[in-house]
Specification:
Structural class of chain B: alpha/beta
Helix content of chain B: 25-40%
CATH topology of the largest domain in chain A: TIM Barrel
Order of helices and strands of chain B: HEEEEEEHEEEEHHHEHEHEHEHHHEEEHH
Oligomer: heterodimer
Helix content of chain A: 25-40%
Shape of chain B: globular
CATH architecture of the largest domain in chain A: Alpha-Beta Barrel
CATH topology of one domain in chain B: TIM Barrel
Radius of gyration of chain A: 25 Å
Radius of gyration of chain B: 24 Å
CATH architecture of one domain in chain B: Alpha-Beta Barrel
CATH superfamily of the largest domain in chain A: Metal-dependent hydrolases
Largest interface: A-B, 61 and 72 residues
Number of strands of chain A: 18
Number of helices of chain A: 13
Number of strands of chain B: 17
Shape of chain A: globular
Strand content of chain B: 15-25%
Distance between the termini of chain A: 17 Å
Number of domains of chain A: 3
Distance between the termini of chain B: 33 Å
Largest sheet of chain B: 8 strands, mixed
Largest sheet of chain A: 8 strands, mixed
Number of helices of chain B: 13
Chain lengths: 457, 478
């Protein structure tokens, strides 16, 4: 990256080489640049035995320890407490004046699937063509070396759900740690849940050149929604029938040999409730629609989005449906919604006893803002404790990884963030970062560009 | 079925919403005393346990134990924080249209003609502490339309929004947006020149050459008139070139949208050549690469705190941009370019402190006094100082805290947002809504209502991308 500065100096130099040198240098730079970028993203840190001492330990799951020690060994948290001593040979980090938090978890992103959203389609792998893509797996599209990975983790977000979008059944979302040279190294649960965009009433009637967006007659919009819903039901019925045929053949080989259908195959574990199905839905009627839809099925549903989920709190609780809330950085839809309608929603979910977490809903670049989403929810009703849980322990529970992540407890994976203040505050700095017990450099594409240009005169 | 008619109700309810909430304040105009606050002045540091006296819309006293006359409105701000009203130096809020995308030069247009004072986003911005905005034309053209600087006097007639005496300005745009609009013509139309960065710069050069010639013809004409030359014929007036002549004469501020440092530098070089100054580089996400060149020319930068990566020319954006520019002496403001983001500019300013260590007050200035300077209105707003307009936000906590929310927002000493009143009125609004829903006209035909035709359903308003030409296909909105 330093070479970029040289390039600038060369531009200013009216030398004999003025015309030909930049061409040569540019070639040189682009090759070095590519290497640098790759090596930067390859900074997967170093393993070891670490002891963070004299620190304030915000365990999240239990009481905060005002002055204690956390020990990290073999990728795990091996000891936490006020009277814990560092094992011999451990690398000690003086945590005086610092706070230790579990890494934050964003349960609503498309991390690694979108590098540059606008105008660079070659860097976008988030939405497969067609409406039914149960077999599209985010984990095989995620770029472990995306610049978004480092930018996100150096702000304290260490684990994300990365999901495909588009169509009706978008594909399978993966739960990943934000470190690793391969998809496999990142994966915590490579095929966690199936993303289903629950059919909603849309009055968008297409775009007409010159006249702009065309409204669709409301009754027609309702009919369209109903048809999409029927199609979705049929999809599930087909998947169930497909699975029955496969099972029947497995029992009795004299039956006709059933051909394999990858999409149907992929659907089965989700339709049968062996794995969760994540329904994107915002409005009250759509949330209730999801509840009705899964009645009498084995589907384990999670709501993604959830603007008005609190209005259906009882139904959600009765059916054990949790909510991944992604609307802090959204405007209220209707003019007469209270101005803080979407800031307040997490607090309303919490008061109603619905299991929820706060997520960004961002493709990748702004996932690092996760703490501020939770903080804003707190400015509008959620307690500070609940706000912190909403981006640590609660998403871990919803993603089925709370036995391994989401709090600082002995035996858990050492995803740990050491800060100089409240992790949800925008002025707080991250001082140390561990993922899977590996100590990571606090560098990113942004710090490297900063270092390259901060002293340019 | 009731839900079907909620949309219609919106229209009715929004109207009554203002009536209920915001017509109340004119009588308060005379005198307001805010007591015992922590005041972030954005000019003279932070003052503890301080009172602010507002008379006839101006800040007249700042100090302790101030006295007000008997009729004054008293606001107890004990335990609260006060900042100047936030100024958003790049906004498209309350514009019914943003892009006149037909020509590469649309300097004859002015967003003043499409202001919608009923846009609910104004109120939401007030609830985020924003009082003033630079309303800009979109970025579909190398030279776009003229801007308007407003204060968010929601509920007042549109004329009262306009900040009197603010120097006029104009939008320029470089890079991907004008290129893309040029190269994606409507069906049946040909591409619009220019579709490259080379051509974009020539469009601008050509406009200034024509404006220079045009000015010369007018100068000659006026000289002849001054000499009583009865044969002098006035040149044909050009609404396109008049504003560009004003740029050459230093009477109109250029707000230049762009991302890559090279093209912003090329515009600065062109400005050197024609002898004008660029007021602000807008977005300028790579400005940190040419900070000394920008500083040398006294040009300002109005940037996002930390947005990046949403298109190729935003891929080198870094959150340290503001800090590098600041250290080089560039006047920096942090803007939103978004109805959504405008609500949390205080947190964007806090990020500037985090990334690169800009001191607190200087970070606060980036959303208050600095944009005021960039817009030429710093004599009257942008800081808490005696003699300035009483554009004031009262926060429940330090505005750089994520837990902070505005409790009250004042413009010229009048309250335009009051959280306690907003919360109080919600129950009334709910009742009003229910009453309206029961009215015959709002009931479904099938349920025996008088309305026999289905209502026209307004499209759900989705927040546009932060970049202002991106949704040009969406009816040119944002």
């Amino acid at each position: 990256m330093k070479l970029r500065i040289m390039n600038y100096k060369l531009r200013a130099t009216k030398s004999f080489f003025h015309l030909c040198l930049p061409v040569f240098i540019c070639g040189l730079i682009s090759s070095v640049f590519a290497q640098n970028d790759a090596s930067q993203q390859n900074q997967t840190g170093r393993a070891g035995t670490f002891a963070i001492t004299n620190a304030r330990i915000v365990t999240v799951s239990g009481a905060t320890i005002e002055n204690g020690t956390v020990v990290i060994q073999n990728g795990k948290i091996t000891a936490v407490g006020a009277n814990v001593s560092a094992p011999s040979g451990a690398e000690t980090i003086d945590g005086k004046g610092l706070s230790v938090y579990p890494g934050m978890i964003d349960a609503g992103t498309s991390m690694g699937l979108v590098e540059i959203s606008g105008g660079v389609p070659g860097s976008v792998d988030v939405s497969e063509t067609g409406t039914m893509n149960a077999n599209a797996k985010a984990i095989v599209g995620i770029n472990p070396h995306s610049a978004h990975v480092n930018v996100t983790r150096v702000n304290g977000v260490t684990t994300v759900l990365s999901m495909p979008v588009g169509g009706v059944v978008s594909g399978q979302a993966a739960v990943i740690n934000l470190n690793g040279s391969t998809q496999g190294e990142m994966a915590i649960n490579p095929n966690f849940g199936l993303i289903v965009n629950f059919p909603r009433i849309s009055t968008f009637g297409g775009f007409n050149a010159g006249a702009g967006a065309q409204p669709l007659d409301y009754s027609q919009a309702v009919k369209n929604r109903d048809k999409n819903l029927e199609d979705l039901k049929k999809m599930f019925a087909d998947a169930e029938n497909y699975a029955k045929i496969q099972e029947a053949y497995a029992r009795d080989k004299s039956l006709p040999y059933p051909t394999t259908d990858l999409k149907m195959d992929a659907m089965t574990p989700f339709a049968r409730g062996e794995k969760p199905m994540i329904f994107t839905a915002e409005r009250e009627r759509d949330i209730r629609g999801v509840v009705n839809f899964i009645k009498g099925t084995k589907i384990k549903a999670i709501i993604m989005g959830g603007q008005e989920a609190w209005k259906a709190a009882n139904e959600l609780k009765q059916n054990n449906i949790s909510v991944i809330y992604t609307n802090i950085y959204s405007l209220p839809v209707h003019n007469d919604d209270p101005y803080d309608y979407l800031f307040e929603a997490p607090s309303k979910l919490q008061q109603a006893g619905v299991k929820f977490c706060v997520a960004t809903g961002d493709a990748g670049a702004e996932v690092r803002d996760l703490p501020y989403h939770a903080g804003l929810a707190s400015a509008y009703g959620l307690s500070k404790d609940e706000a912190l849980k909403s981006v640590t322990l609660y998403p871990a529970q919803i993603l089925g990884i709370s036995d391994r992540l989401g709090s600082i407890e002995t035996g858990k994976i050492a995803n740990i963030v050491v800060t100089d203040g409240d992790i949800l505050e925008p002025r707080t700095n991250i001082k140390h970062l561990f993922i899977n017990g590996r100590m990571l450099p606090l560098t990113s594409r942004h710090t490297e560009l900063y270092d390259s240009f901060k002293d340019r005169k | 079925m009731k839900k079907i008619f909620a949309f219609v109700l919106n229209i009715l309810m929004v109207t009554s919403f203002w009536q209920v909430s915001f017509a109340q304040n004119r009588q308060d105009k005379n005198e307001v005393l805010i007591r015992n606050a922590t005041v972030l002045t954005a000019a003279n540091g932070t003052l503890q346990n301080t009172d602010i006296l507002v008379q006839k819309g101006k800040i007249t006293k700042i100090g302790r134990d101030l006295k007000a006359s008997s009729g004054a409105q008293i606001v107890d701000a004990t335990g609260k924080f006060i900042s100047p009203g936030i100024i958003d130096c790049h906004s498209h809020t309350m514009l019914d249209a943003v892009n006149e995308a037909t020509y590469s030069v649309t300097s004859m247009t002015n967003v003043r003609d499409v202001l919608n004072p009923t846009d609910i986003s104004i109120y939401r911005a007030l609830a985020g502490g924003v009082t003033t905005a630079n309303l800009l034309h979109g970025s579909a053209n190398a030279i776009g339309g003229q801007n308007t600087v407003v204060k968010y006097k929601f509920g007042r007639p549109v004329e009262e929004f306009i900040v009197q005496g603010a120097p006029p300005g104009i939008k320029f745009a470089l890079g991907e947006n004008p290129k893309r609009v040029g190269s994606n013509p409507q069906p049946g139309q040909t591409s619009r020149y220019a579709i490259t960065r080379m051509g974009t710069m020539e469009v601008i050069r050509s406009a200034f050459v024509r404006a220079r010639d045009y000015k010369k013809s007018w100068d000659e004409y006026r000289a002849r008139v001054a000499k009583n030359d009865k044969m002098a014929v006035p040149p044909r007036r050009s609404l396109e070139l008049d504003p560009i002549v004003e740029i050459l004469e230093g009477k109109r501020l250029v707000h230049a949208h762009g991302y890559r440092s090279d093209e912003h530098l090329n515009l600065l070089l062109l400005a050197d050549e024609f002898g004008f100054k660029v007021a602000t580089l807008q977005h300028a996400l790579e400005a940190y690469k040419i900070a000394p060149e920008i500083a040398r020319r006294g040009t300002g930068a109005s940037i996002f705190a930390d947005s990046w990566g949403y298109k190729l020319e935003a891929y080198d954006s870094i959150p340290y941009n503001a800090a590098i520019l600041y250290k080089n002496g560039v006047l920096v403001s942090i803007n939103s370019d978004s109805d959504e983001r405008a609500r949390r500019l205080n947190l964007d300013a806090a990020k500037v402190e985090k990334y690169g260590g800009v001191p607190e007050q200087d970070a606060l200035k980036m959303i208050t006094l600095n944009p005021a300077k960039q817009l030429g209105i710093d004599k009257r707003t942008g800081s808490i100082e005696i003699g300035k307009d009483a554009d004031i936000v009262i926060w429940n906590a330090h505005p750089f805290s994520v837990y902070a929310r505005p409790e009250m927002t004042m413009i010229d000493g009048e309250v335009y947002f009051d959280r306690s009143k907003d919360v109080q009125k919600r129950a009334d609004l709910q009742k009003e809504r229910e009453t309206l829903e029961k009215m015959d006209i709002n009931r479904a035909p099938a349920s025996g209502g008088a309305n026999t035709t289905l209502p026209v359903v307004p499209r759900e308003k989705r927040e546009a991308h932060r970049d202002d030409a991106d949704s040009i296909k969406d009816g040119g909105n944002k």
